[in-house]
Design brief:
The protein is of the alpha/beta class and about 325 residues long. It has 10 helices and 12 strands. The longest helix is centred in the middle third of the chain and has 18 residues.
């Protein structure tokens, strides 16, 4: 691994809550609440967590698809917040996204070939013949029959639609791709094919991935490092094998306990029963540690003091008072 391609510092995405006839501000939803991490060139950083924890919001904020409330996102050393509209547009070909639902992300009124060619028409001054050749090249790269170029999204399978979405993301030869649960809407057999394809494309084109998923098994297969999110915050960040072998945060242990993979139950520190209770509202997080209302190892300090994300071993980070030598029992 080389230097960081993506640097995130204290990133927050807050949405105002409004109420009453005058729509006055009545609160704030802390979708992403002050997270920091790096993504190295050529690696895949997996992000896992329950639905509603802020994974997708964070991924969109990295690409400036949803502007952050506060914090810094640097891409290849450039602070994206300092760029004007024209400068950001010029940089966009290097940053792409593959969305969860390929049927929703593709225009039903245009053919698959035109969908793949859209980025080329928008950013490249190429004649139609060259665009067509590039579309066929991309379809071959994602293992799609070029004969499907004239079909519409509803005429092909979900796996084929997702391959089209991946081909479209590759059209401008990006460096970084956010994969927002790219296999969640697909059958299990197709999921494995798409993940294998993503790995092959990463090696071929030297891509860097942020892979968002709620499937721990899928993340274990594709990721180099894993970040665990809970209620808008990263609670653990570690190399994949270390995290799965011995989770350092009780929430990570709870996720492993809920996984259908029997090997997860043998991980050191894994819980023997799933969590109870629901995820608190990001509009009204509990005081202290966000996880204190559900944590099986909660202590008195957890209800009043929010633990910072600290390095507990080389390259391993956790936000838990259990790793504070002055507090831990």
């Amino acid at each position: 691994m080389s230097e960081a391609l993506i640097e995130v510092r204290d990133l927050a995405v807050h949405y105002p809550l409004r109420a009453g006839l005058l729509r006055r501000r009545a609160g704030v939803v802390r979708a992403v609440d002050g997270i920091s991490f790096d993504i190295r060139r050529g690696e895949t950083l997996g992000v896992v967590g329950e639905t509603g924890c802020g994974k997708s919001t964070m991924g969109r904020a990295l690409l400036q698809l949803g502007p952050p409330s506060t914090g810094i996102v640097r891409f290849d050393g450039v602070d994206l917040a300092t760029l004007g509209a024209g400068e950001l547009r010029a940089l966009r070909p290097r940053m792409q996204m593959v969305f969860q639902d390929p049927l929703a992300s593709l225009n039903p009124r245009i053919t698959l070939g035109r969908a793949i060619a859209e980025p080329l028409a928008e950013h490249m001054d190429w004649p139609p013949e060259r665009q067509r050749d590039r579309v066929f090249e991309l379809m071959a790269a994602v293992r799609l029959d070029p004969g499907l170029a004239g079909r519409y999204p509803h005429e092909v399978s979900g796996g084929q639609r997702q391959r089209v979405a991946i081909a479209r993301a590759l059209a401008l030869e990006p460096d970084f791709i956010v994969c927002d649960e790219p296999v969640a809407a697909l059958d299990l057999s197709i999921q494995a094919q798409i993940v294998t394809l993503l790995e092959a494309l990463q090696e071929r084109f030297a891509l860097t991935y942020l892979f968002i998923s709620h499937d721990l098994g899928m993340v274990r297969h594709i990721a180099d490092r894993v970040a665990v999110m809970y209620l808008g915050r990263i609670v653990e960040l570690a190399a994949r094998d270390a995290l799965y072998a011995a989770p350092a945060h009780p929430y990570t242990a709870a996720l492993l306990a809920s996984a259908p993979d029997p090997a997860a139950w043998r991980a050191a520190g894994a819980l023997k029963a799933p969590l109870e209770g629901d995820l608190p509202s990001p509009a009204a997080p509990p005081p202290g540690c966000n996880f204190c209302t559900r944590c099986p190892r909660v202590m008195e300090i957890c209800h009043g003091t929010d633990p910072p994300l600290r390095e507990i071993a080389p390259g391993r980070f956790a936000a838990c008072h259990l790793h504070d030598p002055e507090v831990a029992p």
